[in-house]
Amino acid sequence: MSKKRIFFIVNPISGRRDKSLFQEKVAFALGGEDVSWDVAYTEYAGHATRLAEAAAREYDIVAVAG
Description:
Layout: E1 4-10, H1 22-30, E2 35-41, H2 47-55, E3 61-65
Parallel strand pairs: 1-2, 1-3
């Protein structure tokens, strides 16, 4: 079975929680799994849509976090 590829899209200004440790938390949570992953942070309104459209062509899973 091939390694699953996950792309996380994070809105850094949504909600109240600090997003600065997001990548470390993902690494901890998925460290034992047979997956590869990347993270992108949105920079402007509509950016998440563009990121998701591009990622959907290359990744098995596209996940969004606010």
